[in-house]
Amino acid sequence: MDAIALDPRLRHAGAFLAKSHRMLIDGKFVAAASGKTFAVTNPATGTLIASVPEGDKADVDLAVAAARRAFDGGSWAKVSPSERGRLLWKLADLVEQNLEELAELESIDNGKPYAVARVADLPLAVDMFRYMAGWATKITGSTLALSLPGEYLSYTLREPVGVVGQIIPWNFPLLMAAWKLAPALAAGCTVVLKAAEQTPMSALRLAELVQEAGFPPGVVNILTGFGETAGAAISGHPDVDKVAFTGSTEVGKLIVQAAAGNLKKVSLELGGKSPAIILPDADLDAAIAGAASAIFFNHGQCCCAGSRLYAHKAVYDKVVAGVADIAAKIKVGPGLDPATEMGPLVSDEQFARVTSFIADGRESGARVAAGGGRVGNLGYFVQPTVLENTTPDMKVVREEIFGPVVCAQPFGDDDLDAIARQANDTIYGLAASVWTRNGGIAHKLARRIRSGTVWLNCHNVFDASLPFGGYKQSGWGREMGEEVLHNYTEVKAVTQAL
Ligand code: NAI
Ligand code: MG
Q1: For residue range 194-242, what is the model confidence (pLDDT) as tens digits?
Q2: What region does 242 belong to: left with phi over 0, alpha with psi -120 to 50, or beta?
Q3: Which residue in 120, 172, 318, 336 has a CA-CA distance of 20 to 30 Å to 71?
Q4: Ligand with minimal distance to 38 CA
């Protein structure tokens, strides 16, 4: 194996990276049962930054058994809602106290600029733990009025679903862990969480903070390993009551199949091909900057990236020129360089995928208005890219690219149903943004667009209170807000004859 080569710009995360890494199972830090490890690399250079345990089915079995014990009348079942809230709040404080270190881990592991991790990923993760800490004491049922003859007392209990398996992606590693862990723990579930193999570092550091916060053994188990082995062992496990997944639509379908064995509950947050729609009356400066950030934020590695740009023909040329101009000026470089605005893609696999989409777009007749190539010859850097002359049938318009590549198309219509039809011409339904000064039109379009989120004169606005998830093949269930608690609870109706 190559020697570990750490970026000299690391100021906080070097000591953690240099450690011998362990997974958290049953309140203990352990190596994989097989003793195997795998390499974690810096996508800016392709060099090794750490080796982490390669957890597989044997480790998942141990973690699920521990989670089962903690849940079934074990330590967690005896913890009061207010104590669950206190533990989540403590974890939020610990994440906040280690913000710089965690932001550096995100940057060197995922490639994203340190400053972005520091002001976006980390504060949102902290807020998610705090928001859900508040919910722990507010999960209630209701009293119901029956119409049957006779007298009854009926009420519902909202109870934790049980042992939850959680499988997360690499685009916002720590934030995705927070989105998953916080509501499950608030609801009283126990958890086996698997980090993405591309970005395991912040989850392993979070595991230490979970221990420091004082969660009882087995309540939170954090594993590193591959999807086909550890991930599949979680989704197929007969003793897991529910699986929550974020990632590709393709793997989402495999999760559903694997879950069929014991009919575990499933929630899925999957891919997208979200439209940004610019109407002729929009504040164009804001719309252009917004459409650019809709696709280029996090290098386009967002399930809700505004990857289809529709601009009215009256403003189309100006919009495309404006977005292309922004794309050309984005400073691409290593995430730890303070001047960097966009880092590398996460992996060689994503680099190959995104560049092959760009090549496919060119071959099928798209014109490259900005970017279109790689940056340098080291690491996985792709230029922010604007494709125009794209048509509804093109692969680049239909499929999720998951990179900094936007497909622009003009529209001539003023009919809102026609605009919505174009926006809805996709198997996905995660998000959309509409840019207009006309509030009535904005809200009419919001109703016509079939997606879990509609942003009006903004894009990529997230808050722990806002439910987020997909219509159509973008998923099942919602993350965040009160809504996510439904993913992690069962409702029991209790009736007594009086
Ligand atoms: P992926 O869906 O394969 O991986 C996401 C997670 O699922 C990882 O933790 C992985 O280990 C796990 N996984 C993979 N195969 C599994 C299996 N058979 N059973 C259980 N778990 C499994 O996504 P990948 O390969 O990293 O990226 C491919 C494409 O997926 C991207 O180009 C993008 O289009 C999409 N994607 C969407 C994300 C989103 O936020 N909706 C996040 C990441 C990827
Ligand atoms: Mg995959």
Answers
A1: 999 999 999 999 999 999 999 999 999 999 999 999 999 999 999 999 9
A2: beta
A3: 172
A4: 1
Counting ligands in written order, the one closest to the CA of 169 is: 1
Which pLDDT score is estimated for 437?
A: 98
Ligand 1 centroid, distance to 48 Cα (angstroms): 22
Distance 409 CA to ligand 2 centre (A): 30
324-353, pLDDT tens digit by residue? Answer: 999 999 999 999 999 999 999 999 999 999
Pocket probe mutation, ligand 1, options 251, 269, 474, max atoms within 8 Å of Cβ: 251
Domain extents in the chain: 14-270+475-494, 275-463
CATH for 14-270+475-494 (2.40.50.140, 2.170.150.70, 3.40.605.10, 1.10.1790.10) = 3.40.605.10
> Under CATH, to which class is 275-463 assigned?
alpha beta
Buried/exposed code over 384-416 (b: 16+ C-beta within 10 A; e: otherwise): bbbbbbbeeebebbebbbbbbbbbbbbbeeeee
φ, ψ dihedrals at 52, nearest 5°: -130, 160
Q: What CA–CA distance (Å, rounded) separates 192 from 220?
A: 6
In the set 189, 303, 304, 407, the catalytic residue is 303
* Helix, strand, coil distribution of the chain in percent, nearest 5: 40, 20, 40
- Residue 269 Cα: closest atom of ligand 1: 41
Instruction: Please provide the average confidence, as pLDDT, over all residues in the chain.
Output: 97
Ligand 2: distance of its center to the CA of 197 in Å? 10
Question: How far away, in angstroms, is 235 Cα from ligand 2 center?
Answer: 15
**303 catalytic, yes or no?**
yes
Which of 373, 286, 299, 290 minimizes the C-alpha distance to 330?
Answer: 299
Residue range 256-295, pLDDT digits in tens: 999 999 999 999 999 999 999 999 999 999 999 999 999 9
The C-alpha atoms of residue 240 and residue 354 are separated, in whole angstroms, by 35
328 is written with which tokens? Answer: 């050309």
Respond yes or no: is residue 302 known to be catalytic.
Answer: no
